[in-house]
């Protein structure tokens, strides 16, 4: 992307256990700065379904877009980022898989001492986080009342979505950016740094939990603006 090219459109993709409403503060900051922001309400039932939902939003845009994914949303944007309207891909404490990798393969062998997300055993093909441990693992730096609400309003995450593997990683052909959440207890920060480095992403690191897109919206919006060329 040349310095003279500013991308106005931004598309935000949420991860597992949550919906798109968590992007509200980021949305407010970007729209105030003149961006046209769309939030994908991806169902998180399957990777193919979430890519299709993202493509549907991209298809409606009037020009190029920066595509942003948080957590599992990183897998979605890795695949959906091959859409011709995507100018850049941004990962926010997200999985950035290579070809053949999925969330399931990326979390299969955690290093010794790494925090283990409190994911409950599957129920009817869906996953939830332990409500009592949700705040500490996912949202340790957001107000307690909000973290409790997020724990009580979890979106069922389909086991099939975790198994969805990247087929053609967009970061291999599109410029990418990555925000590492240094206090993340869902995706270990060393794993985030390794994925960012592998992708050749322009990387920033900020103090923050896995819910950094809620707790640090200024930092998240700033990185997206950088990716947009503004």
TrEMBL record:
A Pfam family that the UniProt record links to this protein: Abhydrolase_6
**Entries under SUPFAM superfamilies matching the protein:** alpha/beta-Hydrolases
Q: Which domain of life is it from?
A: Bacteria
- What would you give as a GO molecular function for this chain, any one? catalytic activity
InterPro entries named in the record: AB_hydrolase_1, AB_hydrolase_fold, Sec-Metab_Biosynth_Hydrolase
| UniProt domain AB hydrolase-1: residue ranges | 10-222
Listed name of the protein: Pimeloyl-ACP methyl ester carboxylesterase
The top of its lineage is: Bacteria, Bacillati, Actinomycetota, Actinomycetes, Kitasatosporales
